[in-house]
Amino acid sequence: MQLTLVHARYQLLEIIRIPVAVFGSAFFPAAAMIFFVVPFAGDDATGATFATASMVTFSVMSANIFQYGIGVAEDRDQPWNPYTRTLPAGPAPRFAGRVLAGLALTYLSLIPVVVIGATLTAAHLSPAAFLLAAGTVAVISVPFTLMGLAIGYSLPSKAAIVIAQVVFLPLAFGGGLLSAPGEAPGFIETIAPYLPTRGAAELMWASVGDFRVQPLALIMLGVWVVVLASLAGWAYRRDEGRRFS
Amino acid sequence: MTLARADQASRRYGDVLALDRVDLEVRAGELVGLLGPNGAGKSTLMNLLVGLRRPSSGRVELFGGDPRDPATRRQIGVTPQETGLPGTLRVGEVVDFVSAHYADPVPRGELLDRFGLGDLGKRQTGGLSGGQRRRLAVALAFVGRPRLVLLDEPTTGLDVAARHTLWEAIRAFHTDGGTVLLSSHYLEEVEALAHRVVVIGQGRVLVDDTVDAVRGIVGVRRVSLVADQLPDLPGLVRTERIDGRLHLLTTDADELVRALVRAGTTFSDLEVRPTSLEEAFLAITSGDQPTGEQPATAAAGGQPTTV
């Protein structure tokens, strides 16, 4: 456990030394807040709260897909990574440390969205709901962490960058993150429940307001978690087999 | 006591046999040099011994245990062939990170001083010169007060002064009772440090002997001449005929020439040249093995010498 914290700490240090990397995952959702949410839903407390929750989901998704997808793929290129395997610790502390650092960075990248929501819009949350929402963030990180790991462990870094960029926009739009709950254009409403972003967004909406989660979206989210977990597990084992067996 | 052992260890990557039934024992207090050309299998052997790879067949052991078990790696220190330090971390942070894995690490300042890096603790590793990075990578092997260090080409890319600093540090560690297995393609380096040399070629242990004995093998000369018939000649390591010229690799060129003359052999266009380390490697590694003291005639398909 102690070693996990050590690994998490140094991975965070490595990332934070290049602030632009952190800025990157926070930028797009923050910009979307300013351009779409503030002018259109800014005055309506309920709408602004839901919209901020959507952007938080967006931010969680992009932060996780990018940092794991690209971070893991880049790490696999570095000789430092096998070196750490010669230290008297197995691969577990490094892996757990990475997930811990990833979660910390996810929260960090949410700060601009939350600050914009709180100051420039009428969005409002009770302290209890805020804590519930913060906890929900950890839950909805799971599918996107797995997706990032699957990308990072199965692709070389140059391909991982492209794939991460290709998947994240359709997931955001298709899941209806850029529309108020139930008000996305027709075909998006049809496909949204089948995307992991929708289930995640619905959990966020339910944590911040009066929203009833659709069973279909939730079931599909569960299916995604199982599929992505087996994909990530397969890619991880394959990579271990190639490099360490 | 044996600290590291390979017992008939083989390692295959797809179709390539990188290590072929290697036997090696490193005993406490030894300083063993692993010598061989690129691609000979040195790094593969190192990777097996530090637990990064599993042998395809055979066994490897560290302190009598499995190197893949983290607990057995507590008493080793490793420098991989490639440096690859995280560029954004400071030198001190990298040392602290590695230290965190050991119960009783060497204090950071002391370690950095020992490797001539004392004033670089605050620098990011990405801003170091290649030589400084390499020295740091070697220093990291010593953080955990190991009993055995495995250094894979530790001084590759260093200038002479930096190389000597590293040699001093490695010697000091050995003098204090530490055990060292280091690979290199510089004979000079192995001569300067090691007492025992293991020559690897094409995945096999070709020679495992003292530095003097290997220097004798490597100190081979090439005598080339044009002749139809050769008498039995002493000290011949290898014979080959290229474009009508005979090339004789020998440990004693003077004696060989005397023998040629005594036998009344008709020859012309005699040349005697020293062989490079590479040629000597090739002589040892090409399958026509030197058979120690025995004079060998042309292209005898001998067994690898494992002395």
From TrEMBL, chain A:
Coiled-coil annotated residue ranges, if any: none
UniProt superkingdom: Bacteria
UniProt entry keywords in alphabetical sequence: Antibiotic resistance, Membrane, Transmembrane, Transmembrane helix
Occurrences of domain ABC-2 type transporter transmembrane (ranges): 8-202
Database matches in InterPro entries: ABC2_TM, ABC_2_transport, Nod_factor_ABC_transporter
Transmembrane spans: 20-41, 47-66, 99-123, 129-152, 159-180, 213-236
Primary site of residence: membrane
One record GO biological process: response to antibiotic
A cellular component term, taken from the record's GO annotations: ATP-binding cassette (ABC) transporter complex
Name listed for the protein in its UniProt record: ABC transporter
Organism: Micromonospora arborensis
TrEMBL record, chain B:
Pfam families in alphabetical order: ABC_tran
Residue intervals of the ABC transporter domain: 4-227
GO terms for biological process, alphabetical: response to antibiotic
Bilayer topology: Peripheral membrane protein
Stored CDD domains: ABC_DR_subfamily_A
GO CC annotation, single: plasma membrane
Keywords: Antibiotic resistance, ATP-binding, Nucleotide-binding, Transport
Gene Ontology molecular function: ATP binding; ATP hydrolysis activity
Listed name of the protein: ABC transporter ATP-binding protein
Biased composition (Low complexity): 289-307
Region Disordered, annotated ranges: 286-307
Keyword Membrane: no
Transmembrane domains' residue ranges: none
Keyword Membrane found: no
Gene3D superfamilies: P-loop containing nucleotide triphosphate hydrolases
